[in-house]
């Protein structure tokens, strides 16, 4: 029985698993969407969501905690500057997993994991922002004609 065992082991030693999850999290932070196997996506969701929660409170301690997991200065910078601004109002659930079928070679179930607030298709409020237009007064318009 696996009572109380939260870690998804992915058939790897702990050092390999931690390095792989750090690399995948960095790719997700940089590209906002990655495609991987369903099991790895679930493990990545467990790994990255606490980091995003920590990034909402920008302190030196939280930056160091995130750096100890991600091991990349640029990734931490993007996480705290860009990602945390978008998810500031969201209480949780920062990622979305979408199944995309099976991989051709080994029939592994694949999934796309993405940061929720960076997808304009699923966020109609952000996609519907009106484009910036120049407002021309009627007087200026009649003068130009």
Number of helices: 6
Strand content: 5-15%
> CATH homologous superfamily - what is it?
Ribosomal protein L17
CATH topology: 50s Ribosomal Protein L17, Chain: A
Rounded radius of gyration (Å): 21 Å
Give the biggest beta sheet: 3 strands, antiparallel
* Strand element count: 3
Strand order of the largest sheet: 1-3-2
Order of helices and strands: HEHHHEEHH
- Low-confidence stretches are 127-131
**Distance N terminus to C terminus?**
81 Å
Helix/strand class: alpha+beta
Shape: globular
What is the CATH architecture term?
Alpha-Beta Complex
CATH class: Alpha Beta
**Fraction of residues in helix:** 40-55%
Integer average pLDDT: 89
Instruction: Provide the domain count.
Output: 1
Describe, in plain words, how this protein is organized in 3D.
The protein has 145 residues and is an alpha+beta fold. It has a single domain, classed as Alpha-Beta Complex (50s Ribosomal Protein L17, Chain: A). Helix content is 50%, strand content 14%. It is built from six helices and three strands. The protein has helices at residues 14-31, 38-55, 60-70, 73-86, 124-127, 138-144; strands spanning 33-37, 95-102, 109-115. The chain has a three-stranded antiparallel sheet. A hairpin with a 6-residue loop joins strand 2 (95-102) and strand 3. It is globular, with a radius of gyration of 21 Å. It starts with 13 loop residues before the first helix and ends with a helix.
Detail the topology: elements first, then pairings:
Blueprint: H1 14-31, E1 33-37, H2 38-55, H3 60-70, H4 73-86, E2 95-102, E3 109-115, H5 124-127, H6 138-144
Antiparallel strand pairs: 1-3, 2-3
Helix pairs in contact: 1-2, 3-4
């Amino acid at each position: 029985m696996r009572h109380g065992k939260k870690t998804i082991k992915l058939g790897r030693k702990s050092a390999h698993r931690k390095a792989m999850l750090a690399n995948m999290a960095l790719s997700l932070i940089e590209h906002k969407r990655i495609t991987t196997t369903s099991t790895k996506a679930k493990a990545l969701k467990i790994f990255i969501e606490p980091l995003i929660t920590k990034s909402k409170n920008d302190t030196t301690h939280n930056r160091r905690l995130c750096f100890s997991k991600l091991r990349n200065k640029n990734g931490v910078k993007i996480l705290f500057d860009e990602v945390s601004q978008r998810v500031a109002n969201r209480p949780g659930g920062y990622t979305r997993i979408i199944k995309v079928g099976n991989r051709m070679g080994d029939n592994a179930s694949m999934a796309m994991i993405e940061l929720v607030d960076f997808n304009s298709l699923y966020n109609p409020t952000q996609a519907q922002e009106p484009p910036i237009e120049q407002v021309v007064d009627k007087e200026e318009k009649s003068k130009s004609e």
